[in-house]
């Protein structure tokens, strides 16, 4: 056979082997392995959109705890002081005297803080802001007045709260469930489960009249 024909025959045999191999791998034989998908097929697959909830952001989650600056007062307990004395290794014959003395000191400090808290709450009376907000409609022309939070004396838009400032009705209606919850907790008010109830409580606390919504929608 001439050399040209031999080289042509070798090329035909070389191209026939991959074809038979791919046919064998796709025929479902026991030893066959599936072909890996090409990069082009992977590129054509739709990409999954990751939502805020899937990313794990806690920005607007309702279960984020309120950042109390001053924790609620805890009344002293004589039994708790006795247990602490035992844990500290105080001799048993001295525990009663130690517990009585410590309990009297903690009780005096507790009573002092109770009186101070009542005076501070009297100064934080929101009635003046409430009366002023009643004359401001939806707050678009004259912004609402906001009281500082009861537990810290800080305003809601300051750290550690960093909440939106409720200047008008539009901002109040756009607050998230977490932001509404923090506003209500900051003013020592109950937190209802629904959004409508939370907004209604905030309107009542701020002094926003009930018919403002209808005026706001018609504007």
Question: Explain this structure to me?
Answer:
With 219 residues, the chain is mostly helical. Among the domains are: 46 residues; 92 residues, no CATH class. The protein has ten helices and no strands.
Q: What fraction of the residues are assigned to beta strands by DSSP?
A: under 5%
* Continuous helix count: 10
Order of H and E elements: HHHHHHHHHH
> Which structural class matches the secondary elements?
mainly alpha
What's the arrangement of secondary structure elements?
Elements: H1 3-26, H2 39-43, H3 52-55, H4 78-87, H5 92-123, H6 127-133, H7 169-173, H8 177-186, H9 195-206, H10 212-218
Key terms for this structure?
single chain, 219 residues, mainly alpha, 10 helices, 0% strand, elongated, Mug135-like_C, Mug135-like C-terminal domain-containing protein
Short structural summary:
It is built from ten helices and no strands.
